[in-house]
Amino acid sequence: MNIEQNQIEKHNDSLLTAHQRRFAFLQEEWEHVDLESVIQKLVDFQIAIPSWALGTGGTRFGRFAIAGGEPRNIEEKIEDVGLLHALNGSSGAISLHIPWDIPQNAEELRQLASGYGLKFDAMNSNTFQDQAGSAHSYKFGSLQNVNKDVRKQAIEHNIEVIKHGIALGSDALTVWLADGSCFPGQLNFRRAFENTLESLQEIYSALPEDWKMFVEYKAFEPNFYSTTVGDWGQSLLYASKLGKKAYTLVDLGHHLPNANIEQIVALLLMEGKLGGFHFNDSKYGDDDLTAGSIKPYQLFLIFNDLVEGMDAKGMNHARDLGWMIDASHNVKDPLEDLLQSVEAIMIAYAQALLVDRKALSEAQQNNDVAKAQEILQNTFRSDLRALVAEARLRAGAALLPIGLYRYLNVRNTLVNQRGKTSATGL
Amino acid sequence: MNIEQNQIEKHNDSLLTAHQRRFAFLQEEWEHVDLESVIQKLVDFQIAIPSWALGTGGTRFGRFAIAGGEPRNIEEKIEDVGLLHALNGSSGAISLHIPWDIPQNAEELRQLASGYGLKFDAMNSNTFQDQAGSAHSYKFGSLQNVNKDVRKQAIEHNIEVIKHGIALGSDALTVWLADGSCFPGQLNFRRAFENTLESLQEIYSALPEDWKMFVEYKAFEPNFYSTTVGDWGQSLLYASKLGKKAYTLVDLGHHLPNANIEQIVALLLMEGKLGGFHFNDSKYGDDDLTAGSIKPYQLFLIFNDLVEGMDAKGMNHARDLGWMIDASHNVKDPLEDLLQSVEAIMIAYAQALLVDRKALSEAQQNNDVAKAQEILQNTFRSDLRALVAEARLRAGAALLPIGLYRYLNVRNTLVNQRGKTSATGL
Amino acid sequence: MNIEQNQIEKHNDSLLTAHQRRFAFLQEEWEHVDLESVIQKLVDFQIAIPSWALGTGGTRFGRFAIAGGEPRNIEEKIEDVGLLHALNGSSGAISLHIPWDIPQNAEELRQLASGYGLKFDAMNSNTFQDQAGSAHSYKFGSLQNVNKDVRKQAIEHNIEVIKHGIALGSDALTVWLADGSCFPGQLNFRRAFENTLESLQEIYSALPEDWKMFVEYKAFEPNFYSTTVGDWGQSLLYASKLGKKAYTLVDLGHHLPNANIEQIVALLLMEGKLGGFHFNDSKYGDDDLTAGSIKPYQLFLIFNDLVEGMDAKGMNHARDLGWMIDASHNVKDPLEDLLQSVEAIMIAYAQALLVDRKALSEAQQNNDVAKAQEILQNTFRSDLRALVAEARLRAGAALLPIGLYRYLNVRNTLVNQRGKTSATGL
Amino acid sequence: MNIEQNQIEKHNDSLLTAHQRRFAFLQEEWEHVDLESVIQKLVDFQIAIPSWALGTGGTRFGRFAIAGGEPRNIEEKIEDVGLLHALNGSSGAISLHIPWDIPQNAEELRQLASGYGLKFDAMNSNTFQDQAGSAHSYKFGSLQNVNKDVRKQAIEHNIEVIKHGIALGSDALTVWLADGSCFPGQLNFRRAFENTLESLQEIYSALPEDWKMFVEYKAFEPNFYSTTVGDWGQSLLYASKLGKKAYTLVDLGHHLPNANIEQIVALLLMEGKLGGFHFNDSKYGDDDLTAGSIKPYQLFLIFNDLVEGMDAKGMNHARDLGWMIDASHNVKDPLEDLLQSVEAIMIAYAQALLVDRKALSEAQQNNDVAKAQEILQNTFRSDLRALVAEARLRAGAALLPIGLYRYLNVRNTLVNQRGKTSATGL
């Protein structure tokens, strides 16, 4: 289904008076700031939607279906992201996963996506599951495997993913490895690292000049004793040894308890090795919850360091890092959940853009800790939703995306069109 | 020093126009809500200041002094809390600690406190340190001690604290025990529990009819293997066995990583055994940071469950639980830090008061998880600072407490009056 | 397949000389102790094998098959446990799971099990997954559900499980609930507790007089914000309100990071409310690894408190608590993994039995912490494998269970008999 | 006091028969192994004692004295380490801390230490506390400080420490920084890193050619939001940028919950950047408990990777890394506690030396996870205390160090000689 521009406008009209009052209030509150440039940054900022997050997620204990209407193929996944992008104007990219989304006709897909205003973001390979008919099993790892044939199969799969990406106009490969071990003694850590590095080097050498490779790290799960790319330090080691096209990718849920993620982000930026993000939120592990649903202040602090660090390097917020969501939707409609994630990210970004950098820098220089806290809390406590909504309005999207989604009964329409379907994914 | 009413009014006048604009905006946004009753609840809500938090804190690695001006005695501590209360109108109580605050003349202290509009909140005993001249050491615990004489000394100390409290008009005793063990085998857990219970029973029997006993729990530190009142389950066991005057006290920093504190709070309320709070914030352990400085959403969620649960029981928000701060101030001016803590707590309380309970209950009844999240985030993302400021204004306090504190150079005045002093505490 | 007694004896014969040397050494080392009574306790101690752990486990990211030979039905599961019990003499019970193991003919199953020397341990219900054809979904919980019809369905399922258990000669029901929530606001914690309690009460009332109900708790997963029976404190609340047949069940992997499980165990024993265990090990969450593979000293410390506490109450080690394994086998042969778990548990139990209780009690009474540590480490550092092996020898089992398992090529035989099968389970 | 050789011999004589029986048993058990070479490695292995760990430790809540007899000066600290070394033959080095141990006459100290068979291990600087009379405060950090003058003072202090070390014959500087922040916004992470790096570079340039600089990391405490050398990844970044004399130092207690320390160790070794260790144990944070008292299996696993990794690089176990204890003694006699730590470390090292490397490597190559676990558990479960004791015996030390310590009433003697003293330290 498509959401028509006039449907959006009509819904917006009903909300416009209240919105204008709120936006006018914000303009007055922030009159000393160039709000127009902030709004333009919000308009430009796009967060890629992962193709595997368009269906219901689950755990090892099972998966509970929603009403249905989940996309049955890559075309319908693009359609779903098109719906999101029509609603919020901030979801202008899709991140594909091979083999769940093997494109049959890349050119047609590019045109389809383009019609929705979508680009193809980073491609994702999968060497954490065995595929029917594959010669070797990844039970004991892929790029780390003690068996050279298994490594070779995994390398070739990644190279194939790059080729799909080239055809689609993507320019990045995200390598997330489940490789690791479940028990002490299972692995020789050094050899596992060396095997993984050697494998990554082969994949890296197949990367086009203008591509990036994102080396994702994760503390634990599905291996429960060690992970071979287990933290940012290990990812940075790989990325440094690989070369200038290799970067670290930060998934917010892939850390040990209490980790200071914003510091990691700031240091990776400093090193020129931050590649991008998988946004989500979590309380216990890689819970893959809606971004900003558990620790919204942490999300803001991450963006605070991102904005400061990117500006210090003269980077383009929208283009120079990869912004992706990676979440599961076990108890919500996946599309509603994604709308909530994007909204939370946009709010955090807006808050970070409004931080008084000069005053903060002065407070830091004076070790005025209470003042520094006041400055950060001042923007965090400000209600910037009308600013984000204004950016949507200007982009031709909905003032209230989730409101319009429900008003239009999008899920019902999808169920009617597609049936009680269940999408590929976890 | 005193802050004069006209000093407050003059400062408020300079901020009044902006405040009125913001408050008017809020009134329009929340026109469907009885804001006046919300404001009255905010005016009534008082958070006790612990006498030991008026000076600079430290760690085992040392303590770094601030400029000075720290209170030298109980009278100056009351003066400091008086300053805070004059500024924010929400700090109308002081929580004393024995032996750091042994009152010489209770009647004079009551009059002094009363002059500042202050009450004496829960009394705190100390059996985690040895005092000069005491016969027995608490090295191996106090109420749990294998030596009956040590237990007796600790019991008598608590009874003495109750007596001081009676003289001052307090009506609660907070018992925080450092008791526990550092190594496996050091303690027999069962006997430690039994000794502690027996000791608490003796203290309990010395409690006046209208008093409460708060049994505080803590997961670890200063003992690093076990703590004898280590979690809410243990505290509830003690409180249940003691009787109807005994309650569990929740210090936000006293949990294992990732604990769901709001659920604990809801269940203790359900059981009629929640006594009160020690507010602070933390990232790693009992970090004793400013309330709301790390996880403000968690603070809101706690108040969300408090408001819902207290209303369900017909409890009085301001009076039926003990509200206290327990924080350290290692890198900030203690008084500024306390102002920030109180502000964060008041905001969280205001947010919780504005949650649309009926809509939330319906969303829960319909398992509409996305909607429930929207409802909570809607008030959390709202900027309610003007509401809290309005409550202050009506209470005769400052619109911008920390602004006025700095404008009046309070710390400088205190340094001039008191010298380069350092207060008792940790 | 069956392992014949003479196969065991023949294998034992080849190891006997070395075993006797080791056992003789132990007898000399522990000559001041009644080793015979220790050995008898080891012989008597039986650990139930869960029927769902006989096949390969997995995570939400997938499952990697082993060679096959996994049991296809309840009869083959009993056969597998029979193999384990023949090998180690300590796995004389099976814990069934409904609906994965619905018995068609209880009497035949009893005879089959009896032939292997097996009893039917606690029955396990499943309300964390939807079954084909069931009227209601557990997506939003079972016993906690806001919908009375869902709760009713879950209650009736549990009652059906009890009936199956009665027919088989079991005498306990383990209730593990995945009930909880993924997002703040999703649940009203109090109502979720009340619904769950009411549901448990209905199940409890269907319990035969001589049965126990085990209320299992878990901190997180598959719900990632709250769990409705989330910790021992909550489980104890339910068990206390239910009545004398209700107990708390401790799964070692169901805690927050750094929890002191041995203290929890000691206090539950003190309260007369410890029901039993699900043994496994973990580093990060509910990793379900082999018992003793990550933190063997913790396993010993738990048994140390169990032995002390049970003896203090005059309880029978083998009979008065439920001893079960609950582990997953993602990278090992399930039967080998279970043999390793049982071995680790038996060693920990043996170590605990040999702790010098009198000396430990004296050291505790004298606050001689270094001595207390020496006493515990003395038995932990002792190599008691020959003692456990001797108990196996006397029970007619194998000196080296995993050695014999491999020597006999048990897995190959099972693959040949059953094919490339995959068992029910997670 | 001194422990005379004949006192040791006499005590050993009383234990010799039992020891010989145990050692003979081990010889038979490990007849296929060159035990003599293992024993020689144990004899050669020396663990440095930190001068600040010879007195009673404490927490921010206080310190409880032991009977006394704590060293009053650097000479008595050397005397204490001499006692330990006489007892266990494995504590042949002392690690000094400036300004707690400023040597007045280096040559005399060298002779004194040499008389006890002691070397001067890594020197430790202190920029986490202010010293009386110093011009600048480290309240807001030292090498990271926004104020160049503060950084300069800290740099000069470190250079002074190097000079003291040169005079004493040390060849390493350990830099542990408490630098970090307590609140979001307090620091600019990038600038803090850059300031710290620049400061370290200045110190590094003052390092003699044959010295090493150990950059220690710590996750949290005394700063509770961020630490500027917060994890191994950050330490490695500094060490790599500094140059070939700079290394990472691993303190076992300085990690986030659940960290896989052995993997970190293996990777640092692989990178040629592992400098050494601070041994201790912990359950919650930097608890500074006796090595091996909480997680002895983890200690073994670390040594397992150390032995494998050092052998792979042809490194000398005893000389090529820095082995130090860093523990606090809050409830035990410090000297007894240190004896227990050294014993636990020696046992873990002995276990690691006996791991069947060839079989383990084969099991890894075959992904035989159960076998790999059996191999590691086989040495861990073996009782190797007699092997460690034999090494002591051959080194002229005590078979039972803590037994002899108590037999000789060492603490009483020290109290008599020194009085109720309290040593410098934390």
From TrEMBL, chains A, B, C, D:
InterPro entries: L-rhamnose_isomerase (IPR050337), Xyl_isomerase-like_sf (IPR036237). It comes from the Bacteria. Coiled coil: none annotated. GO terms for molecular function: isomerase activity; metal ion binding. Keywords: Isomerase, Manganese, Metal-binding. PANTHER family: L-RHAMNOSE ISOMERASE (PTHR30268:SF0). This is L-rhamnose isomerase / sugar isomerase.
